[in-house]
Design a protein that fits this description.
The complex is a heterodimer of chains A (about 475) and B (about 210). With about 475 residues, chain A is of the alpha/beta class. Chain A has 17 helices and 19 strands. The longest helix of chain A is centred in the first third of the chain and has 15 residues. In chain B, strand 2 and strand 3 form a beta hairpin. The chains are: A alpha/beta (about 475), B alpha/beta (about 210).
Amino acid sequence: MTQATTLFDKLWQMHRIADAGDGADLLALDRVFLHERTGGVALKSLAECGRSVRSPERVWAIMDHIVSFKDGRGRDESRSPGGEQFILETRERALAAGIGLIDTDDPHQGIVHVVTPELGLALPGMTVVCPDSHTCSLGALGALAWGIGSSQAEHAMATSALRQQKPGQMRVSVNGAFSPGVAAKDLALHLIAAHGAAGGQRCAIEFAGETVTNMDIEERLTLCNLAVEFSAFTGLIAPDDVTFRYVHGRRYAPKADQWERAHQHWQGLKTDGGAVFDHEIEIQAEDVSPTVTWGTSPEEACPLDQHVPVDANPRALAYMGLQPGQRLFGLPIEGVFIGSCTNGRLSDLRAAADVLRDRKVADGMRAVCVPGSRLVRAQAEAEGLDVVFKQAGFQWGAPGCAMCFYAGGETFGRGARVVSSTNRNFEGRQGPGVRTHLASPATAAASAVAGRITSARSIVGGPGR
Amino acid sequence: MTNTPIGHFVGRAAPLMIDHIDTDQIIPSREIKSVGRSGLSDGLFAGWRYLNPENRTLNPQFVLNKDGFSEADVLIAGRNFGCGSSREHAVWSLKEFGIRAIVAMSFGEIFFDNCVRNGVLPIMLDSLAVTEIADRAARDPRNDITIDLPSQHVAMGDTVSRFEISAYAKRLLQEGLDPIDLTLKDLDKIDAYERKDRAERPWIYGAIV
């Protein structure tokens, strides 16, 4: 009898080239993705060391991090001082190396973790690395995907392999159904708040259970995206019919007989019954409420109808301008951002638009929506969502990472309290002194309308929405 | 790219005892101004080090601005140091500032690897040992810290702790090796893997269209 193994074990074993000594393995890499913030640095350094990209057909550079989100931006326009140099260098080096390039003006341009599933560049069963910590998002497809540094990206390009210590394994099982107004984002924040921002350290986390299998791919991407905020090596979800339907027909997905072979291969990618994990966490979906962060770490979060803990970290409270025991619901805000690799996909924009339709943002509110990719933006516009956002008083931006992190361009201003559909509420993440409250797109939209932290439930009026 | 080997050294330690210091704090994105690995130390901890990052007014309360600590070559921190963004600029800026080792209760995983690849020694110790070292450093910046990688020991006064590090990371740091060179020695194994895998998963290897 063969031993029961996990999805993660199978992906690991499938890509294991050799024992690399000292408890590590040399793993084969199917895809390397780059972006302009570190892609140019890595390609430049590689060339300066006299090395070449070993398999350029499996490496792609995608412009997302510091491109301007101004509608109608110029080809090299950045939101970071000196940022155009990063765009130019990445473009020039990518073309010279012969790798794939999705340039600033490409109709498929957008955030790496939004674009690569969308185009079928990331597929189930692949190993994928990218010098971006949110690469774990792609685990939603049943890929083994993790974020690396810039030197590791050079390594990956030069050798198509990386030496890796096998992490521990954790399964987070979620069962039951979400209450109305609760989304994958709330689940992830709930998990991190309950077990700490380091709760998944040195673990690969498989998300399982009926709540997860009932999610569409976009929700799964949101869930896996936040695995890194739980300090996990990666997050992953077994590919199923939902995944295969999503992948089928995508631009770079396998076609015809290749599809048949791949599809058959992917069906074996799941955890066997009886497989043992190092850690197990169980969550009942009904226990998850619309959740919002109050501090400066994603673990500092609670249901938005609750209060800041009385024993909250004083440093975080000082930065956030809050008092112990203060109520979060109703807290006045100055800004809202909807977008990012966490929540910048079509279903996120739809959830926000459902709240915003025939409504206006509160007076004085700076509200910005930046679709995660040009395809998302085009689809949203085809549905008229851009009109909903604009009529509500939102700025409608050009795709990229935009206001998720401050790169020297536009920000909300020192001390501004902002509800953001992004992934990090770190001090200064969205600009010097900006006070970020992470939440779902629906919560962000509802808060924009109310001018205060509020839930979509209370603004839309009762359950059902 | 090879690094300066690390062996035994005596230095000065600066305590920065905050948990979850993320790489956005170590170097904010706006401080990454050129395509390269240098010119970054000025942006190190910019949000904390300067009262006004735009005109670079120093914050006298920040540890690295205090007498004695500005010369630190070892940083002492709490849990999960270097979490968040994978930006390697965090390590490049620390290194350029003069930091050679970081003692913390735990590290962000990508950051840890970035340290090893850049010749900066990440040392993980239990919270008691880290707190003792931080207290000693805080009492007097002239207190020496001794780090010995071969024997895997950190000493400050009579606080002596052994730390664990993988044999591989230790070798990279001690010999200043470039891990790409090590993997390139296994190219035949990588080629053999791909020949076999190409037959099993041909869709992985399609050309760019």
